[in-house]
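Re: that chain you flagged

S.,

Sorry for the slow reply, it's been a week of failed gels. I finally had a moment to sit down with the sequence you sent. For the record, here it is as I used it:
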Amino acid sequence: MVSDADFLARFRHEALAAANLAHPNIVDVFDVGQFDGTPYIVMEYVEGIDLKALIKRSAPLPMTQACAIAAQVALGLEAAHRAGMVHRDIKPQNVIVTADGTARITDFGIAKSTLSTALTETGITFGTVDYIAPEQAQGKPALPQSDIYALGISLYEMLTGRLPFSGDSAVAVAMQHVTAAPPPPRQFNRNLSPQLEALILQCLAKDPAQRPSSARELARQLRAFSSDTSPVSLPPVEQQPTVANPDVFPRPASPLPLPRPVNTPNGPGTAKIPTMPPPRSVTARPPRQGSAGCGTFLIGMLILASVLTLMFIFATGIADTFFAGLFGGSSRPVPTAAPPVAEATLTPTVAPTTTVTPQPTILVPPLVSQSESVAVATLSQLQLVPVVQQTNSETIARGFVISQELAPGTVVSAGALVTFTVSLGPSTVALPDWRNFALGVARSQAESLGLVVEVLEEPSSTVDAGFVIRQSPSPGLVVQPGASIALVVSIGDQIRFPAVIGLDRAAAENLLRALDGIDELTIDEQGRDRLGDQFDQFRPGEVISAAVFVGSDSLQPIQNGDFIPRGSRIVLGVRASE
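Prediction finished late last night. Pasting the structure tokens below so you have them in one place:
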């Protein structure tokens, strides 16, 4: 396969495209190339567990956890789809879940290239057949909705511990994806809500048009079932050109790959990733400002005048004089004896005159420096058709008009196309280093560069609370305006309270006394007089509550997994023997 030139070309093309993706829920691609004839790709190392292993170990997962993971995967897919990429091999094996619950998609482009040469026994190109969308199983091109289908299968598996379709061969499973209805997931997990089941089955619709309209929309719906606080904020949707006819005025090409810092075989450095030219756009031409309508009108009037003149000549006898002078006699024969006839008056028939209604003229308004929405509204009110083009500008703010093709004051008719260009802001952004910056300062600077900021929190013994510990993507990487960045912010020197509530007293004491960061532990035995009717619901010696001292004498209840300050004093509530 390594010697297959077609495969190598696709490998490089798709890996370069993947390198352009910068999103907290996508594993970064740093470099792609060849060494001694062997193609390689350099990817970010992410410490965690792949989702397939998590499913095998813990499925069915809690609904909130499964939906939080799926929502993050959907947001990563949304970023890829907006960049013009379809993963085509979404499956739990290609999702890494870190210790803090962050989901990261991997193998962008690589699975896609491999699929182009890996055929099943029937000759149909498949991804992993357990997660393949019906349109892919039928040999049709993969769509963004194909990734949504595969994510729906993965969510089904997370919540039920099984796949909806199985068979004796890959072809048998693929045909079920095409023709068979999936068993309702609540058949295997009665704890699922009917609303979540309906969303999963919508993702598994055979018709791509019946699935959620986008990965962004799917993420929004999944958030309703998740209480997760991991970084799954929705990125803004970039505006596309507004056109009168999409066949004449195509959408702009996907963003080009951007250079990233890499380690080359000869040492650290910066490898420039070659860019891929976008498809050629068809240039829109405004209507010709000629006078064809006026010329047609004048020709018609001349023909009508000629016809009327000839009728007048023959009706008045002028033709006699003309022909007599030409041939030496009258053009009329001398009448012989004939019965008298009544004299008739010849009335010429005149064709009706066509009245042409002149088209109203409109002056093109000035659009430069206006916002795109104001420019579109102004032209629409004047019965003109706005055609929006977009380009980067280092001086004009994003969303404002840079130039217009027809100068202000140009006379046009109603329905004319008026093309103007809107700024996309700076073409690229080199990420500053915000480590050890206060969150407010870092967020303000990032948003001024057109970036979308997502904030994560974690304890730190070296970075003060409210200051940035690290960021993703890393400082120095080049991204486009509108890209999402994650700022990990310190919550101070804190530790996570272990899961001791529900344990026996002895086991809880041993666990807490061995933990570095708890200065004092007090046991509060609670009898029937304090617990009342709840007394018999607990085992003798069972830890039923926990609290931490805040200040000198104020107690604050805590739960398993909460963060507490290092050096805290803990009180455990334990059921007394009797």
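What I noticed first: Confidence is low (pLDDT under 50) at residues 110-126, 228-296, 321-347.

Talk soon,
D.
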